[in-house]
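Before going further, learn to read the protein records used in this course. Taken together, the tokens spell out the fold as the letters spell out the chain. A record is reproduced here so that you can trace the correspondence yourselves:

***
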Amino acid sequence: MAIKKILYIDDSFENGMAAMTADKRIDFASDIEQIERPLGDYDCIITDMRMKHEESGFEVVENAIRAGRLPYIATGGTYEHGGTFNRVRVFSSDLVKTFDKMSKVEGRFWREALQFIDSNDGTATQQALKKVRETLGIVPEDQARMLISFYRQNYMKK
């Protein structure tokens, strides 16, 4: 399955502009309230973790899972967030990749991150979640909680 439409959510306008410049498939929203289409309309969702508050990214994760999509998180220890060097981690429920010496304002990061995402598109977990949502019309609560737990575990990895 090819990724045709990507939603990127981040409170940094600079990061959003860099993402949209790097790849024309990307729509940008600066917070969850500004998303113009249902999350299920997107083939891929990427979100920052810290936006309005500490749990903003997890709100996106939960809403995306309930819409039948496994989002990717792009978050890092960049200088602007108090890190000692530029680094961005991209992860989903079961994948993690670190991009050292890069930040989300760089086109190079977006090209490499999207290559990673494109190469992992259609994983068994993604397909199963999408099929459950399409078949039942909902994602069962126990499945949603389990997937959100995996995201929290990946977020805590350093």
Observations:
- The CA atoms of residues 18 and 42 lie 19 Å apart.
- The first strand starts at residue 6 and ends at 9.
- The chain has a mean pLDDT of 89.
